[in-house]
């Protein structure tokens, strides 16, 4: 995508595309790992839990979005976050999710603490007798 194409898009559309890039569990897990430190693909594989080819695809998506950078040391490729703000974003998302889950847990607890109303059973059908 050219820089001119980026400038002509509204910021909300660019944000939507950015968040779409984050919309895969494997990509989120990769970014979480890279928030801690630089990792090689070999180090990430057991942590992410997907096939090597799939991890490679997800890393390519993150590279195209400029969320990660690479360096090569011999035959090993190491990945790192392109900006510490990515780690900040993940931390904020975790805080928001924690709040949402806490509210849901509170609602669930309140639901279980409230006595259930008696079941409303429909009246039994009356047998009509012929006169």
UniProtKB/TrEMBL annotation:
Protein origin, superkingdom: Bacteria
GO molecular function terms listed in the Swiss-Prot or TrEMBL record: DNA binding; DNA-binding transcription factor activity
Domain HTH arsR-type: 7-101
Pfam family, one: HTH_5
Region Disordered, residue ranges: 112-131
Compositional bias annotation for Pro residues: 115-124
SUPFAM superfamilies: Winged helix' DNA-binding domain (SSF46785)
UniProt cross-references to CDD domains, sorted A to Z: HTH_ARSR
Keywords tagged on the record: DNA-binding, Transcription, Transcription regulation
Name of the protein this chain belongs to: ArsR family transcriptional regulator
Organism encoding this protein: Actinoplanes xinjiangensis
